[in-house]
Amino acid sequence: MTNERRQAINDFAGKIRELFAVATDEPIGKFGDIVARLGGRIEETSKDYLYEQVVKKSSESFTIYLDKTGAYSSEQQRFTTAHELGHLLIHMGYGTKNWDSVNIGDNYNKVLGIYSIVEEEADEFAAAFLMPEEGFIKVAKESSNDIEEIAKHFNVAVIDAKKRGRCLGIWGR
Ligand SMILES: [Zn+2]
Q1: How many Å apart are CA 121 and CA 47, to the nearest integer?
Q2: What is the Å distance from ligand 1's center to 150 Cα?
Q3: Cα of 151 to ligand 1 centre, how many Å?
Q4: Which residues make Cβ contacts (< 8 Å) with residue 82, sequence separation at least 6?
Q5: Of 115, 136, 143, 145, whose CB neighbour count within 10 A is largest?
Q6: Domain coordinates of the chain in residue numbers?
Q7: For residue 168, how far is its CA from the centre of ligand 1 (angstroms)?
Q8: Distance 137 CA to ligand 1 centre (A)
Q9: For residue 1, how far is its CA from the centre of ligand 1 (angstroms)?
């Protein structure tokens, strides 16, 4: 991913956060509410969705399918949901004209898009949506770069906070 593309995705994630009036140093609240306010819904499934946590266009709007077998922590589920919102908003064009050309049932998932650029972009969106640069830097400073505390603050997994900090150049790569 080019730096320009990365920056554009971060800016876009910031705009989406603004819709929900969440300050950059505050955590995103319940994803059920976020998704509902965007007009979609979350469905938990215990089917073999381990490799298929996806967002799909539905006849009414969109549905994000999450695994409920307990294979993932709630923090991981939040990241996954944000990742799927990335696909929805960036790649499927939800809320734009492009959405019209998406077929019902169309989706992005990690099986179909093995570590492709779209996966990288959805991860970047998720990280930026959950941990905006400005807020992340502020919280990191306040906690003297205590990674556990930063992760807890943004309600994300420690590994995702670590990656974000590395990506933002706060600590060593
Ligand atoms: Zn994906």
Answers
A1: 27
A2: 25
A3: 22
A4: 28, 31, 125, 126, 129, 130
A5: 136
A6: 3-126
A7: 22
A8: 26
A9: 15
